[in-house]
C-alpha cells in the first residue's frame, strides 16, 4: 500500500503512485528470507542439476495438481515441443489450436514438421470455440492443443468429448492458468492442465507461478506417455548412454526449482490476491459503456494471469492516454498467428478467423499482479473510465 511518508506538498498523486504491469520485486521482498535460504541450500549442496530441490518441487506440484506424473523441463515452449514429440506424430499430421495466443504454441507444431490448423475463439472467454473445433477435424488431425488464455480454462469437457469421439490426443497449454479449477457437469473438479492427455506449463517469471529465470513442466496420468516424456527430456536416454529415441536437453535447474518450491506454497494466496484485484476492476467498470470486463466461465475458476478488457472503439487511444498518466498496459495479442508472415504457408488470410481478428483490435490488459494496492487500483480505474468516456 502506498504511503504519504516522504511526499512533498507539491508531489502529485500520479508522481506518488508507482504502478507496474507486474511487480515481482515487491513480491520477492515478502518471501526473501525463504527464497534466499533455499537458494543457499542449493549452493551449499553443489547439486545444481537434478538435485533434491528439483525432486521436492516436482513432488509438491504433482500433489498440488493431483496428477500422477510430473516432468520438469527448461521452459514452457520446451514442454509443448516435448509433449508433441512423445506422441510420435509424422510430418504433415495436423494439430488444431488457436491463433489468438503467444507464438510458442504454433511454433513447436511447425518446428516438428506438423501442420498447425487454426480455429476461432469464443468472443467472451477468448478460448477455443468448441463448435469451430469439431468443424476443423479431418482424417489427418492427430492432436488438439487448447490454450487456457489469460487464466481460465477452455471448455475442456466438450474438448475431451470431441477428442475421444475422434480418437485424438489433447495437449493442454496451461502456461497462463496454473491453479485454476475446472468443474464438470457432474460436479467433479480437476485442476486445469490435468484433464487432457498431457498438460504443459511455463514458469516464466511473470507467470502466476514463476521462477527467476526460465522453466516449465509437463504432467500426465498416462504411465506410457510419462516415461516417453522423461526420456525425451534427458537426450532420449533410457539409461546412461543408452538412447532409445531422439531427445532434447531440457531440465529445470535446482536453483529455479528451489525458488518455485517456496512460491508454490503461496500460490493459492497469490491467486486470491489476483482475484481480489479483478473484483475491484469488475465493480469499477460494471456500468461503463464501451468496455467489456472479462467473462468468467461457469465451468472454470479464473486465476487472472491477465485482466483483459474489450474496448469497442479507441483501444489504442486509451492505451496512449493511460501511458501519459503513468499507467502501463499491454495488448495480448495485437496480430493473430494465422496472418503472421511465419505462418503464411498455412494458407490463411484476414477474414478467416473473424472473432480472433476483432479481439486483436479490441483487447487491452491492465496491471495485474499480487501486489496491487487499493490506491493503485482506484487510480487505474478512475483514469480508464475517464479516458473511455472522453473518447465516446
Task: Give structural notes.
With about 400 residues, the chain is an alpha/beta fold. The protein folds into two domains: about 240 residues, 3-Layer(aba) Sandwich (Aspartate Aminotransferase, domain 2); about 120 residues, Aspartate Aminotransferase, domain 1, CATH 3.90.1150. The chain is about 40% helix and about 15% strand. It has 13 helices and 14 strands. The chain has a seven-stranded mixed β-sheet, with helices on both faces. Strands 12-13-14 form a three-stranded antiparallel β-sheet. The protein has a two-stranded antiparallel ribbon with strand order 6-7. Helix 10 packs parallel to helix 13. The longest helix has 22 residues. The protein is globular, with a radius of gyration of 22 Å. The N terminus is likely disordered.
Amino acid at each position: 500500500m502506498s504511503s504519504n511518508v516522504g511526499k512533498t506538498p507539491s508531489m502529485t498523486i500520479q508522481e506518488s503512485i508507482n504502478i507496474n504491469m507486474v511487480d515481482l520485486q515487491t513480491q520477492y521482498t515478502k518471501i526473501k528470507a525463504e527464497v534466499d535460504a533455499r537458494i543457499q541450500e542449493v549452493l551449499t549442496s553443489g547439486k545444481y542439476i537434478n538435485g533434491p530441490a528439483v525432486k521436492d518441487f516436482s513432488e509438491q506440484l504433482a500433489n498440488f495438481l493431483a496428477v500422477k506424473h510430473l516432468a520438469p523441463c527448461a521452459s514452457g515452449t520446451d514442454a509443448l515441443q516435448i509433449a508433441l514429440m512423445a506422441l510420435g506424430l509424422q510430418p504433415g499430421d495436423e494439430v488444431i489450436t488457436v491463433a489468438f495466443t503467444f507464438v510458442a504454441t504454433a511454433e513447436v507444431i511447425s518446428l516438428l514438421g506438423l501442420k498447425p490448423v487454426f480455429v476461432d475463439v469464443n468472443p467472451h472467454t477468448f478460448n477455443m470455440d468448441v463448435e469451430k473445433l469439431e468443424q476443423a477435424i479431418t482424417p489427418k488431425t492427430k492432436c488438439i492443443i487448447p490454450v487456457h488464455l489469460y487464466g481460465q480454462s477452455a471448455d475442456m469437457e466438450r474438448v475431451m468429448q470431441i477428442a475421444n469421439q475422434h480418437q485424438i490426443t489433447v495437449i493442454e497449454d496451461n502456461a497462463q492458468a496454473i491453479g485454476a479449477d475446472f468443474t464438470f457437469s457432474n460436479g467433479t473438479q480437476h485442476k486445469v492442465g490435468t484433464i487432457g492427455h498431457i498438460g504443459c506449463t511455463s514458469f516464466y517469471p511473470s507467470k502466476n507461478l514463476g521462477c527467476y529465470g526460465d522453466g516449465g513442466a509437463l504432467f500426465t496420468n498416462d504411465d506410457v506417455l510419462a516415461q516417453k516424456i522423461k526420456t525425451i527430456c534427458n537426450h532420449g536416454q533410457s539409461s546412461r548412454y543408452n538412447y532409445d529415441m531422439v531427445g532434447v536437453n531440457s531440465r529445470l535447474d535446482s536453483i529455479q526449482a528451489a525458488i518455485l518450491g517456496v512460491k508454490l506454497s503461496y500460490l493459492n494466496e497469490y491467486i486470491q490476491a489476483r482475484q481480489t484485484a479483478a473484483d475491484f476492476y469488475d465493480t469499477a467498470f460494471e456500468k461503463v459503456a464501451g468496455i467489456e470486463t472479462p467473462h468468467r466461465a461457469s465451468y472454470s475458476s479464473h486465476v487472472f494471469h491477465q485482466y483483459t478488457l474489450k474496448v469497442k472503439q479507441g483501444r489504442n487511444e486509451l492505451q496512449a492516454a493511460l501511458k501519459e498518466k503513468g499507467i502501463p498496459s499491454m495488448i495480448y495479442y495485437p496480430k493473430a498467428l494465422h496472418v503472421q508472415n511465419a505462418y503464411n504457408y498455412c494458407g490463411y488470410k484476414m477474414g478467416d478467423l473473424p472473432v480472433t481478428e476483432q479481439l486483436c483490435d479490441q483487447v487491452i490488459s491492465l496491471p495485474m499482479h499480487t501486489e496491487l494496492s487499493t490506491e493503485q487500483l482506484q487510480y487505474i480505474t478512475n483514469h480508464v473510465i475517464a479516458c473511455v468516456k472522453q473518447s465516446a
